[in-house]
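Appendix B, record 7
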Amino acid sequence: MSLLGVDLGLKTGLALFAGNGRLVWYRSHNYGSAARLKRGIPGLIREIEGLEKIVVEGGGGLAEIWEREARKEDCGFKRISADQWRRLFLLPRKQKSGSEAKRFAEAAARRVILWSNLPKPAALRHDTAEAILTGLWGVLDCGCLESLPRELRPK
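Structure tokens (predicted):
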């Protein structure tokens, strides 16, 4: 079983989680246009073995593209807002502005990377960090992890 966390945008953050709740890989992809995104999603979904659920942060037309492709592949789909994962991973004082929340999200995502025993990234784009936290929110929501591990709790 695997779960894909997605931070929506033409510059899309992606984070794949295994059934044990650990991050497997993370990356960012610049699709450049909605048409290229629409053409790219089916191949991405098919290349992920055992993909059972996609959790997307954001809405609008780009979310509808992801949802349509998930349904075609008989994959679960959930759309959330940034506020949902922020409440879980960031203390209230670190959510006062969007730019401040993005900065703290990067630090939280780096903790997830380390907890998952993946190499430290030299740089971590905010869309990728947000995809990691969206995916971890999804892992908790579907019950792959019973609770947020102590190492990942907000600081």
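Remarks on this record: Residues 2-149 form a domain with the Nucleotidyltransferase; domain 5 fold (CATH 3.30.420.10). The chain has five helices and five strands.
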